[in-house]
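Bug #77: duplicate submission created two jobs. Keeping one. Sequence:
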Amino acid sequence: MKRDDGLERLSSCFYWTEFDGDDKRQYLHQEFVYENVMLAITRGLSWSTVAQVANITKDLLPKLKGLKPSDVICLIKDHLSQIEPRLSTAHHAVLLDFIVKTYVPHQWLYQAFLNGETSLKHISCELEIESPPHPQPLCEGSDAVEWEQQRTLKDLRLAQSQIEAEIKGLKEKAEAQMMATLQASLNGLPFEGRMSKQEVEELLRSFLQSQGEIIMASLMKEARLTETLLQMKLRHFANQPVSPEKHSVATPTKSKKK
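Kept job's structure:
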């Protein structure tokens, strides 16, 4: 029997009053019952059990309105336990699994159906599909090796500019620290009175030491940055392919004896 014929036969076996006046919802209700009935038949259940499956699934679907998945499963189990004689463990598990997998993954669709929201308007928008750009002629393209060299050189120049900016920032920072140290030393001088020779020497020694430490720290950082840049340049030039040069080799000739 074809599906449409089976649905028509099933629809004549019951009074479908749950969604009276709404043909779409009534048809979906009948489909839900039909799928479960067909499963019971294919599993070899008795006709009395098949009839009970039809009755409980017809009664079940409208009751699922607004329920959470966990409550849905409990309600399905409760309805299946009403079948007499009791289903075997295997048949009970198969029916439960089928009904749950039929309903739960499509819960939102079924809830819209149960709430009568089957006539919702769907908002759609058109998206323009752009085709990929037309490739340039091969004669206008770049050699892969040459393109890679240009990309590497571009990265090297970018790194060089960043390191140079960092070195410039280090110098400016060192100058600012030296000026701050000088200002602090000047502020430490007494406003009145004279300083002894030892005090002056101590002040100069302290000032020069602090200036030297600032300069040394800045130079060490600059040296590390410069070394990093130099290593990058060396790696870049080491990876450059050497273009073969044509060398002419003189072929020795025997001179004739006169």
